[in-house]
Specification:
345 residues; 1% strand; globular; 73% helix
Amino acid sequence: MEKHNYLKIFPLLLMTLMITISISLVIGVANVTIIDSIKIILKTIPIVGDYIDVSNIQKSHIAIIQNIRLPRVLLSFLVGYGLSIVGVAFQGMLKNPMADPFIVGTSSGAALGASIAILLKLNKMFFGIGIVSIFAFAGALLATLIVYNMARIKGKVPVTTLLLAGIATGQFFTAIMSFIMTISTRDVSTIIFWTMGSFSGRGWSHVQIAIIPVLLGSIIIYIFSKDLNIMLLGEDSAQNMGVETEKVKKVILITSVLITAFLVSVSGIIGFVGLIVPHMVRLLMGPDHRILIPASGLVGGIFLIVADTLSRTIIAPTEVPVGIITALAGGPFFIYLLRKTKRTI
């Protein structure tokens, strides 16, 4: 895609994001109009809010938008944004179209770590960071290292071994988590949340937990976007061109695990977002990671806002875990990728 087309794509994505957020905010039991929801949001902005009149809007509607729907929509965006960027980073680093946090077992490791913290009654904060998130990070890091080392053959990570190692490790960690659910009947409903993913009951505190890791992590990954482009030529070629490939892989791996762990700690396991979105964006914009990373983040955020809106409205008042919605979309797409790459498997 030519450079001037990028200048058109990003404003279009931002406009789509704003429209998606506006529509998502007004969908629900409470009948709030788009104009009222925009006024309520603008009212919360310093200086600008002084010129916005919301006296004719019901206080209950203001509370619903400010305290329930807006943080939920923002959290959906952050999780979709972060998972998509991690998917791009994994696929670029491993040169593997199947890689994403769910497939390589990172999400399962994070969920197991969070479940252990719940079992040990460690739902507390430590210097502003939830101990559950710290356990999720440790579990995600352990699972990723296991999969990466199991899959690596002579310095390379073939598709077949990555899939087998990821599935085996993910199932093993899931089995341990199921055992924890069996012996900890009081916390079953809480732990089930981690296995299916949901934004139900999420608020501003969860946005605060996710926003810094996602922003810092995406910046770090973007800094290595040129290196990821060069690594697509092969590690030997990249090293000859001055790229410290092992150092780049370690930094990206740890950063990706950090992002995934914090996101899983606030939303549970939401699979396939990091698999689907990068491929969609790559088809539209090509493989340049300088474009692919921010574009995938925006598309992933929009995708998960739409998926969460469907999850809470499709059979309302019952809420479907958002992980089921993404799996329904991602499962067929994963099969398509398997068929497409069957000659190499």
